[in-house]
Amino acid sequence: MERITEKFRKLSTCNVSDALDKLKLKSGIVGIRPAYDCKKIVGFAVTIKVTAAGETKSESHLGIDAIEIAGKNDVIVVDNGGRKDVSCWGEILSNAAKLKGIEGIVIDGAFRDLDVIKKIGFPVYARSVVPVTARGRIMQESVNSLIQCGGVQVRPKDLVVADENGVVVVPKERIDEVYSIALDFYKKENKMIEELKKGRSIADVDREYKYEKMMEG
């Protein structure tokens, strides 16, 4: 049986976003983009919650626990509250994650060492890149707990899909349902394009496939 991650890999985040919309679920994360021309990522969330450094000290170096937990078919998701002034991921962590076969990372915040990360080909989706270290500024609060990413709730084992269009999160209880609807959108849109290539007008094709009403019912 085809793995769920491979099924979703064939779909655009736009297809998935439309399916989430139809189900009245959060349909996408705004402002998080691929850091470079990296590959699409599809996998199950391993989460990191980041907080400000202070008198209470972290019990672990930021990112290490998540890498230890995660494996192939997993995506690390970091909640740093959208901060762009400090990095929460970099060269060493990317190398460790890449060597372990982790699918990629989504960061609600910034990272650094883009030049090296591009060379090793580890997929990073983030808000921005900065040279500023996390040391003395932020620390890991928790791992594999409930977090937010761009205002979207993310839990361990939720499905994360990220491509050139952006990032979507599929609740783990709704994965099959979302996939079925997204696949239907994908097939219908491809059929519409085939009809257009045959010379039919967009008005005729739109009327036949009722594109404007695809979210209904």
What is the strand and helix layout of this fold?
Blueprint: H1 4-9, H2 13-22, E1 33-34, E2 41-52, H3 64-69, E3 74-87, H4 91-100, E4 104-111, H5 114-120, E5 124-126, E6 128-129, E7 138-143, E8 147-149, E9 152-154, E10 159-163, E11 166-170, H6 175-197, H7 202-209
Parallel strand pairs: 2-3, 3-4, 4-5, 4-6
Antiparallel strand pairs: 1-5, 2-7, 2-10, 8-9, 10-11
The CATH C-level class name: Alpha Beta
Averaged pLDDT, please?
A: 95
| CA distance, first residue to last residue | 29 Å
Low-confidence residue ranges: none
Helix content: 25-40%
Provide the number of structural domains: 1
| CATH-assigned homologous superfamily | Ribonuclease E inhibitor RraA/RraA-like
Please give the count of helices: 7
What's the CATH architecture? 3-Layer(bba) Sandwich
Residues in β-strands, percent:
25-35%
Net shape? elongated
Rg, rounded, reads 19 Å
Largest sheet: 9 strands, mixed
Structural class: alpha/beta
Architecture overview:
This protein is an alpha/beta fold. The chain has a single domain, classed as Glucose Oxidase, domain 1. The chain has helices at 4-9, 13-22, 64-69, 91-100, 114-120, 175-197, 202-209, and strands spanning 33-34, 41-52, 74-87, 104-111, 124-126, 128-129, 138-143, 147-149, 152-154, 159-163, 166-170. Strands 1, 2, 3, 4, 5, 6, 7, 10 and 11 form a nine-stranded mixed beta sheet that branches. A two-stranded antiparallel ribbon has the order 8-9. The chain starts with a helix and ends in an 8-residue tail after the last helix. The mean pLDDT is 95.
